[in-house]
Amino acid sequence: MQNNRSQRPQKTGKNHQGSTNTPRKAPTGGKSQGGAWATGNAGKPGKPNGRPAGYHSSAKPGAKGRPTEARTSDGQRPARPSKAWNAPGNHPPKPWERNENGGRPARPARPPLPKGAPRSMQPKVIPGKPGGAAWGHSVPPSRSRLEELLVKHGVTVPATVLDKVWQYHQILRRNNGDLDLTRLIGFETIVQRHYADCLILHKLMKGRWPSPLVDIGTGAGFPGMMIKMASPATEIILSEPRNVRVDYLNNTIQEMGLKDISVFGHKFTSKSFQTPVRGVITRAFEPIGKTLPRLQYSLGVGGLAMFMKGPGVDEELSAPLPSNYKLVRDERYRIPATTLDRAFVVFERTA
Question: Number of helices (H) and strands (E), helices first, in the chain?
Answer without folding.
Answer: 8, 11
